[in-house]
Specification:
Largest sheet: 2 strands, antiparallel
Radius of gyration: 20 Å
Number of strands: 2
Distance between the termini: 39 Å
Strand content: under 5%
Number of domains: 1
Order of helices and strands: HHHHHHEEHHH
């Protein structure tokens, strides 16, 4: 894949503006953080439903219940983990809340809208698992502050963890594009023909090395834990990228949307995060 300077310039300018808004949302306060991921959540859901409608013809005629309630339920789950809904005793237990709401939604869908096929319901449930749960993990990272990468951090871990995760993914994506454009020759997979093994491995190694070095020299973090963190992040980020590429391939579209010139839509920009966030959540629980 030859290096295209004009494409790289467009992507870079867009990335700078986008990064400014992301940093404002991430660093200003918890409310801007919640607002940022609320926008990301509903933007991803909007594009996901459009893509599924191109893959499953019957999905175009799904009921209002499926079109609105699933994303709204995901948003409610985000608010629950943000602590905003804690005053309601019946949703204090997240697992019970999820189970009860899913059963209610399926009941309403099957009883009152008989035209909905199983594949439509399955697609909506997949959207909830694919989009809402990972975004909820990002909210939980920010507001819990209970996870530690090393024993020497004296900062707000609720902010450090999502920043490290997003930085790892961005460095991986950027370096994979540059390395792949310069020396990439071996296709990674038919799902995404432009991706190469050289770019994928180069981006991963540079991201792991950069984040590990920065956290070690600035915070004296545990190097093994940081390598695990960054390693898991880049692996699942790549899988998330490929998963979204597969969805777009099935839908026969190039981009999930046109929200960001040179980068596509919400799913194009956050596909890696949607896979990496749950993986990091599980890793940190184990650690």
């Amino acid at each position: 894949m030859a290096f295209n300077f004009q494409v790289f310039k467009t992507r870079t300018l867009t990335a700078i503006v986008f990064a400014a808004f992301m940093l404002l949302g991430l660093f200003a306060n918890t409310w801007t953080y919640l607002l940022l991921f609320t926008i990301i959540h509903f933007g991803c859901w909007y594009e996901y439903q459009k893509l599924v409608a191109l893959i499953i013809p019957g999905y175009k005629n799904i009921s209002v219940i499926q079109k609105i309630v699933y994303p709204f339920f995901g948003f409610m789950l985000m608010l629950r983990f943000a602590g905003i809904l804690n005053s309601f005793s019946f949703i204090n237990d997240g697992s019970e809340f999820i189970t009860i709401m899913i059963i209610c939604i399926l009941f309403l869908e099957i009883v009152f809208y008989k035209r909905s096929g199983i594949e439509n319901i399955a697609a909506s449930l997949l959207g909830f698992a694919y989009i809402s749960l990972p975004i909820t993990c990002m909210i939980a990272f920010r507001l819990s502050g209970n996870f530690y990468i090393g024993s020497y951090f004296h900062f707000d871990m609720g902010l450090i963890i999502p920043i490290l995760l997003i930085a790892t993914i961005w460095i991986n994506d950027t370096m994979a594009y540059i390395v792949g454009s310069l020396i990439g020759k071996t296709p990674l997979t038919k799902i995404s023909p432009k991706k190469t093994w050289e770019g994928t491995l180069g981006g991963a190694l540079l991201a792991i090395a950069t984040i590990s070095a920065v956290t070690y020299f600035l915070f004296q973090s545990n190097i093994i834990s940081t390598l695990l963190f960054t390693g898991v992040a880049v692996i699942f980020a790549t899988l998330g990228d490929l998963f979204e590429s597969k969805i777009k391939r099935l839908a026969k579209v190039k981009d999930s949307g046109n929200f960001l010139p040179g980068h596509g839509g919400f799913l194009d920009r956050f596909d890696s995060l949607l896979f990496a966030a749950p993986a990091i959540w599980i890793l940190l629980l184990l650690m």
